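Class, discuss our next protein.
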Amino acid sequence: MLRMIPVPGVFLAGVVVFVVVLWDAFEAIILPRRVTRKFRLARFYYIFTWRSWKLYANLISSGKTRETFLGFYGPISLLFLIGVWAIGLVIAFGMMQYGAGSAVNLSGTNSSLYTDLYLSGTTFFTLGLGDVVPRSGIARFLVVTESGFGFGFLAAVIGYLPFIYGAFGNRESNIVLLDARAGTPPTAGELLRRHSYPRGKEALRELFKEWEHWSAELLESHLSYPVLAYFRSQHDNQSWIGSLTAILDACALTITGIEGACAKQAELTFAIARHAVADLCQIFGAAPRSPETDRLPPEILHKMRVKLAEHGMALTETHESEKKLLELRHMYEPYVYALAVHLSQSLPPWIPDHNSKDNWQTTAWAKSVSPAEKDAISLVHDDHF
């Protein structure tokens, strides 16, 4: 049955929905740059869903279960966002078909907006059932156009998902490597202590250089694809924001008071790492704010000085060095704290807890090894703060 009563308002509304959804998907998937425009579909989507997800997570009493629940958000939100785009395009073409007069052939019932949405859905997902057939020229044009966009959308998603997970894997590799170098969770004091061996300062310089490149890659990937920030690490006591904070802490200590410990490389790493956290705060609308409690009170700083001095990593203890350290901390701590609050993650301390163990020392297989092997594992890093 043919109904040729165009509704220009509905057609134009469909065009608007189509442009909004298509442009938003283009900016999120294809455009490799930071998008600062406030009115974005994906932006509103993540603001609403992340706030709701955190609200439900805060109702979970178990910390481990809550962290697992939060860890689901990144992958699930990405899949649902793709679904939102797909549904938006289906609705847009359905509205355009209806606005053009519902020029379709079907049997047994009258055409309606539902029929046009059904035709749009079967066309977008390339079902080709044939029970609803376009008759007019514009209806045929819309069907052909939608089928092309449906195919292109599928191809874009196929290319998008592997890239996201590839970038996630690259980010996590250095975080895992930091486990044996700085403890779990990583801390600046433990990182410096474990590099107090002969030629350890050269190894520390190489580590800072690696994290300079890592921070640049983080800045590029997370600004272009902010959803990566919501992907959490495999272990509950590790995170990209916690690891980056530990590196910034270590750089600040190295710059202000460890003689002969690659201060220049520490400055370069500090600069790009601070750049990364500052720009990410802008992306997520997380206003910088100082931590509620001092992360490095005088007693902790004194304890760290004593321990590092015992291992040949003496920190300069002057009024100027302490003032410089405080200035450097003020340059990044408000940003990392704002990101940690936004992402429901915690910042690492400056020195490890006395009873903390590295993740590799607490894996399940260790329960079945011999007592001698357990003793060997426990002796590797048993010199704690």
Observations:
- Residues 152 and 158 are 10 Å apart (CA to CA).
- The chain has a mean pLDDT of 86.
- The radius of gyration is 27 Å.
- The chain has two domains: 8-159, 183-379.
